[in-house]
Design brief:
72% of the residues lie in helices and 0% in strands. It is built from nine helices and no strands. The termini are far apart. The structure holds fe (ii) ion (2 copies). The site of one fe (ii) ion (FE2) has 5 residues, from α5 and α7.
Length: 254
């Protein structure tokens, strides 16, 4: 497929998400995995909603407070939609644990947010970057979900809200921080990239650690086993007499 066709297919999704579309299709195709992911997305959206309620509490800007409250209600609704869909899909059998979080993290990643520490500007920059990334991901998820029209419909529905979140956060960022909004956006992007790197690095570290331990098991342990066997052969069987001076009192340790 040409890159132009891909672009049309996944709308404004980032090139990275578009390239990963086959991976996302593979991840979502499996019904058990889909349920797990929907449940996790549900959690992330609801957590994001809670953070936004807190943001509405701490901001001194009345317009932002109203927008954050609307936004929080949306995220709450998204959480419910994901959970309801997961519940509808669950057919009694417990699904296996599946974690491919480093490559397809759940939703926004608003969980990285420390609401109380942020100014209106940094908060909006963080939200904008997170919402943009969610909108891009959800667009690809919707497009690869042709095997499950009900789930696809949910992503389509949610996507409309995410577009709104993405747009209002940028407009408001430019309003509250007309001079610094660009640098604030870059800082938010970089911190997001850094977190993605950390996620990838820790996943990789797990794999490498497992590999090295396996090698150690096969390379370092055999000589010890061999020495132990050899020493065992030299040992005499049965009772062995000890020196008489070690044999006098049982009240002392030595
Ligand atoms: Fe959402
Ligand atoms: Fe959102």
């Amino acid at each position: 497929m040409s890159s132009h066709a891909l672009h049309r297919r996944h709308g404004n999704a980032t090139p990275f998400d578009r390239i990963l579309a086959p991976v996302h299709r593979w991840i979502w195709r499996d019904p058990d995995r889909r349920v797990q992911k929907l449940l996790r997305f549900g959690e992330t959206e609801t957590d994001g909603g809670r953070d936004l309620l807190r943001a509405a509490e701490v901001t001194a800007d009345p317009l932002l407070r109203r927008l954050y409250l609307v936004h929080a209600t949306d995220e709450q609704r998204h959480g419910q939609l994901f959970r309801k869909r997961a519940a509808a899909m669950l057919s009694g059998s417990p699904a296996p644990e599946e974690r491919a979080e480093w490559i397809a993290p759940g939703g926004h990643g608003l969980d990285d947010l420390e609401v109380d520490q942020e100014s209106d500007g940094t908060m909006l920059a963080f939200l904008h970057v997170a919402e943009r990334s969610a909108a891009s991901r959800f667009m690809v998820y919707r497009d690869v979900m042709h095997f499950d029209p009900a789930t696809r419909g949910i992503f389509d529905d949610i996507l409309r809200d995410e577009m709104f979140h993405m747009n209002y956060t940028l407009t408001q960022l430019v309003r509250v921080s007309p001079e610094r909004h660009r640098s604030q956006l870059w800082r938010a992007r970089l911190s997001r990239l850094w977190k993605a790197y950390l996620r990838l690095a820790s996943a990789l570290a797990g794999v490498i650690g497992g590999f090295i331990l396996t090698i150690q098991y096969f390379v370092l342990l055999p000589p010890f086993a061999w020495f132990a066997k050899r020493a065992g052969k030299r040992e005499q069987g049965g009772w062995i007499p000890i020196a008489p001076e070690r044999n006098d009192s049982l009240r002392r340790e030595y």
